[in-house]
Write a structure and sequence with these properties.
The chain has a six-stranded antiparallel β-sheet. The protein has a six-stranded antiparallel β-sheet with strand order 6-7-3-10-5-8. The relative contact order is 0.13. The chain is of the alpha+beta class. α1 packs across α4 (about 180-195) and α3 (about 155-170) packs across α5 (about 200-220). The chain contains eleven helices and twelve strands.
Length: about 325
């Protein structure tokens, strides 16, 4: 195991990498490297928080209790084996002897090999055993994930995105995934950032941690059961905004319909139909209207002569500007 990764794992113990946003709170109990002893055994237990595991080296076994129908009297709360600096009194759940024996037939056992990953959602009982001759080195993290009401204005798509991630992670899905190179890469990036502590390292670690959450959530995604909502831009409003922006930015020029169509990524024909539908005039007339509106506003300022205004708004002369203003307002510039 790379000693710099291990040092980075140690350094993380003193770094607060909690993710706190309006309406969303993700608190990290630990994110570390667990170098297990030969035949080390974690007995059947569950946590109130999420746990992610990645086998960086070695091999072993993991057993998941394939039922949540457990008599509450058979559960006892004990101090967690792996402590948390942020939550020193965190507990884990164990089954009393008789109940654990009764549940032994309901355990699914999976072989663990290098590159494997698995997740324990809150309340999922499991045990883990390391190989005697090739013990596991595990990248692991434990965290809580809460969605809260907030009075702070927040983008509705942001909250919906995190609600979906939370929903995916809390599914009672038992699975061990193989060949998780991306998970490995992100974990090791976090450990290296914690060790090197270059400018921006904390933001980088938090972003990497969030990427791990997203990766594990995607592994649990079944689009037949949970529909993922993708927020879409209102293309009509966006195109109208783009049309206005282009015309405003080019008022002093001779604007060609071809240029405007290319800017909003439409054919000239579709652009003409679009403007006619939403503005009630042709593209040429709409451009002229915007030029005249700008000209009228400028001419109200005594600092500008009619010649100045004609130049700024792209008219060839003050005569042509006066004629256009008369046509669209019914008044001569001197009457405005």
């Amino acid at each position: 195991m790379d000693k710099f990764l291990l040092k980075g794992s140690q350094a993380l113990k003193a770094i607060n990498i909690d993710l706190i946003y309006p309406g969303v709170e993700i608190n990290i109990d630990f994110l570390h490297i667990d170098v297990q002893k030969p035949s080390e055994f974690y007995s059947l237990h569950a946590h109130p928080n999420f746990e992610f595991h990645f086998v960086a080296e070695g091999e072993g076994e993991v057993g998941f209790l394939d039922t949540y129908d457990i008599d509450i009297n058979g559960i006892v709360s004990l101090p967690a084996v792996v402590k948390s600096i942020s939550t020193p009194l965190i507990s884990e759940y164990h089954l009393r002897g008789r109940y654990e024996r009764e549940m032994s037939n309901n355990i699914k056992v999976y072989q663990l090999n290098k590159g494997d990953a698995f997740m324990n959602p809150p309340g999922q009982f499991c045990w883990q055993k390391s190989s005697e001759h090739n013990p596991i080195v595990e990248y692991g993290m434990r965290f809580s994930f809460s969605i809260r009401k907030t009075e702070t204005p927040v983008n509705k798509h942001f909250i919906k995105e995190y609600n979906i991630l939370h929903q995916l992670l809390t599914q009672k899905i038992i699975q061990v995934t193989r060949n998780n190179d991306e998970v490995k890469s992100i974990f090791e990036s976090i450990f290296k950032e914690a060790y090197n502590r270059l400018p921006g390292f904390l933001s980088k670690i938090k972003n990497d941690f969030l990427n791990l959450i997203i990766l594990y959530a995607r592994q649990a995604w079944d689009n037949k059961k949970i529909e993922y909502f993708i927020p879409e831009v209102n293309t009509t409003e966006k195109r109208l905004e783009m049309i206005d922006d282009f015309i405003q930015s080019n008022l002093g020029n001779s604007i060609k319909i071809e240029q405007l169509a290319n800017y909003v990524i439409m054919s000239e024909r579709n652009l003409s139909r679009f403007v006619k539908k939403h503005k009630g005039v042709s593209v040429h007339q709409y451009i002229l209207q915007m030029k005249i509106n700008k000209a009228v506003g400028l001419y109200a300022n005594p600092a500008y002569t009619l010649t100045d205004v004609a130049y700024i708004t792209g008219f060839s002369s003050q005569f042509h500007l006066s004629k256009a203003i008369k046509q669209y307002t019914g008044k001569n510039p001197s009457e405005l």
